[in-house]
Amino acid sequence: MKKSNNKKTRDVTAFIYPRLSRDDNLEGESYSISNQKKLLTKTAKDMGYTNIVTFVDDGVSGVTMDRPGFNEMMRQLEGGRASALFVKDLSRLGRNYIEVGRLMEEFFPEHDIRLVAVSDNIDTAEGENELAPIRNLFNEWYARDISKKRRISNKIKGNAGEPMGPPPFGYMKDPENPKHWIIDEEAAQVVRRIFSMILDGYGTEQIATIFEEEGILTPRAYWLKKGVKKPGKAKQQPSTKWNASTIVNILALQEYCGDVLNFKTYSKSYKNKKRIPNDRENWVIFKDVHEPVIDRVIWEQVQEKRGKIRRRKPKDGERNMFCGLLVCADCGHNLNFHFNQGNHDIKYFNCSNYNSSRGTCTSTHYIRVDFLEQVVLGEIKRLTKYAVRYEDEFQQAIMGSTQKTVELERKLKQKELTAAQARDTELDGLFERIYEDNLSGKLSDERFAKMSQRYEEEQAGLAEKIKTLRKELDKLSSEAVSTDMFLSTVRRYTRAKKLTPRMVNELIDHIEVYQAEKIDGEWVQKLTIHYNCIGALFIPDTESLPVPDVTVNTRKGVFVTYEPAHNE
After folding, report:
1. How far is Cα 417 from Cα 398, in angstroms, rounded to an integer?
2. Are the beta carbons of 297 and 489 closer than 8 angstroms?
3. Strands 326-328, 335-339: pairing kind
4. Is the CB of residue 86 less than 8 Å from the CB of residue 116?
5. Would you call 554 helix, strand, or coil by DSSP?
6. What residues are paired with 512 via a beta bridge?
């Protein structure tokens, strides 16, 4: 009896499926969801179906068959919940020739489901329609054509500097001009705080924890509160549950400098909507289009720091501002942070390559943290005095130091590029020669195949190397260090009395640590400080700019004194 009731219900039940995507907006109001519902409901009732169930996909492309409403409808059809399906036309089912054809020729007949496509005059109860496969093919071609037109349109807009995506957290669309972004001050304050905390030495996990404890809304929760729709599926999680990955994504956005970055991602085809990261060389960047949320100098400092592998947490969780900044002067490896096991107040660094069981460095490069702090603070004070008292000489020294570093690196890269290009040309000649030898019979086919394969593999490697070297040379050529910019940063610390993580991060790129050595009966520890943007700057040792006088009793009866390496 139950089975009979189910069959009776199924016989009078029809599913209707309205679908709309951006592609269909071109077709006009007749394709709206509400109009499709009215048309399909009336048609189904006129055909005697009294139980109408609606499944909808609004804003989902017909190219993909993975749609929420469609998937649920197919699940219920497979379960025998309806005997008929009504759509406005076959393109509502999908614009995929193979998949829609499979449904019509296999799924619907197998499950005894009547398909009615109203505008296409298709009703499977009246027998097969010979035009249906052709219509399906045209529907797919339409999707491909629309995709092609949209790509061309996007390329034109993107190359003209129009933002191709929604504004990031901290910005919003200008109500008077949607193509322009303005600062959303409430969100921008959170963004500025993130950058400031990074420069103060906080890690991304720490920032996420602090924001969660303070009850700060995540970007998605903030947009939801403001009624701003964002693409993508939102994960169900508390509105104040920040993740370190969210912080990392915010820190990486160059858009906060006021720039527009287009073509950062792409899709392989109109059938595959997945966005794939594009090579940076294919991006189109327009600088200073919008008002910046973050000063460009601050953004670049953070990028530089975030690009390092920084070991900041020893076993008890304490952090040190020099972690990731100290480099062994002999082997180039990072120095690791440690505590003295007998006295935890004594903190020090030593070469990671020496500590390792497979290490190749012959010396420990041991250096105490208290000694390091005094030296670095003393050198920064010396730097600020030099900048203020001898401004012209300081600017010349910065320019000279920068130019030397960049020019040396540029010459090395250019030498590599010239050699790679010469070898590439040589291989072209060799290939042509063996080709002629093969034609004349001097070289067998087997030998020719082996040699040509070897040459081709070598040329493929050279092509990649040449491409990389050209990018690096372009970068070196475009790097213009602003002396005024660095000078303004230095001036902020003219009255510094204490070393802070932010001071270290803003001014110092890395520090080379030498092994302490005995000179004239005294132990001497040499260091070279490499500053951000300008590299190593050797300040003249004069009466007004004396080298910091720092001596530390590192162990019983042993005193170590600081001396700049290669001091001039």
Report:
1. 28
2. yes
3. unpaired
4. yes
5. strand
6. 327, 528
Q: pLDDT tens-digit profile of 433-471?
A: 887 787 778 888 788 778 878 888 888 888 888 888 887
Task: Quickly count: other Cβ atoms within 10 Å of residue 93's Cβ.
Answer: 23
Q: Which two tokens stand for residue 360?
A: 């190749």
User: Do 2-155 and 161-306 have matching folds?
Assistant: no
Token pair for 535: 């590299």
**Cβ atoms within 10 A of the Cβ of 378, count?**
17
**156-200 per-position pLDDT tens digit:** 666 777 887 889 999 999 888 888 899 999 999 999 999 999 888
Q: What is the 3-state secondary structure (H, E, C) of 186-200?
A: HHHHHHHHHHHHHHC
Q: Decide the pairing of beta strands 122-123 and 276-277.
A: unpaired
**pLDDT tens digits, 350-396:** 888 886 556 788 888 889 999 999 999 999 988 888 888 887 777 77
Beta-strand runs (E) in 340-491: 347-351, 367-368
Neighbours of 370 (CB within 10 A): 14
Strand duo 535-536 + 367-368: pairing: unpaired
CA 438 to chain centre: 49
Distance from C-alpha of 119 to C-alpha of 128, rounded to nearest angstrom: 16
Residue 8 tokens, joined: 């009776």
Amino acid at 218: T
Long-range contacts of the stretch 453-462 (C-beta < 8 A, 24+):
455/427, 455/430, 455/431, 458/423, 458/427, 459/424, 459/427, 462/420, 462/423, 462/424, 462/427
CB-based burial label for 516 (10 Å; 0-12, 13-18, 19+): buried
- Identify which of 417, 397, 413 has the alpha carbon closest to the alpha carbon of residue 476: 413
C-alpha 297: how far from its chain's center? 19
Structure tokens at 178: 């949607």
Q: Which residue's entry shows tokens 């969100």?
A: 187
Residue 290 corresponds to which amino acid? H
Give the β-pairing of 347-351 and 335-339. Answer: antiparallel
3-state helix, strand, coil in the chain (%, to 5): 50, 15, 35
Q: Which of 148, 27, 150, 41 is nearest to 91 (CA)?
A: 27
For 2-155, CATH gives 3.40.50.1390
Q: Which fold has domain 161-306?
A: Hect, E3 ligase catalytic domain fold (3.90.1750)
Q: Where are the domains of the chain?
A: 2-155, 161-306, 391-485
Residues 6 or more apart whose CB falls under 8 angstroms from that of 72 comprise 55
Residues in the chain: 568
* CB-based contact 87:62 (threshold 8 Å): no
